[in-house]
Known about the structure:
- The protein has three helices and seven strands; from the N terminus they run H-H-E-E-E-E-E-E-E-H.
- The chain has helices at residues 2-9, 14-45, 146-157; strands at residues 49-55, 67-73, 77-82, 92-95, 99-105, 120-126, 140-144.
- The chain is elongated.
Amino acid sequence: xxxxxxxxxxxxxxxxxxQWVALGLLLILGAALSWIALRRWxxxxxxxxxxxxxxxxxxxxxxxxxxxxxxxYGTQSLAWFPVFSxxxxxxxxxxxxxxxxxxxRSPDASDRAHLPGDVSVVRLAWSDGDGGESSEGTVYExxxxxxxxxxxxSWMESMPPGTHWEA
Length: 167
């Protein structure tokens, strides 16, 4: 009887191991969610960030679909950060130089499944030196509410002091 008891005492039951694995996974999930919340808080606290949706029409995968995120205005570019990401850097950077609005519309029927009803969709492209649309630049669409769109258009039309883009 003693032999049987001592052999079983040295073994760790499978359910105990599964509980530790589950606890470890919960801790990792909690850390990831905390990082996402902290990242979002930092993006908003730094200022110049607005909530918007971004997509690159015609591209496959996630870049071709509407994604929610934060756009942060910079002096030379617009940095776009997805809301649900662990990455601290922007996923897309839209250069301010040559950026032009080439269209504006309300969300159509296919967009309604992914966008709220109170946004406007703006199509962006980069112009070449002659004012035409550049063939090499990627075209993006941004969907924003009216207040954020007014701020975005104002940012596009203004130029930071001391900037000489002609040079």
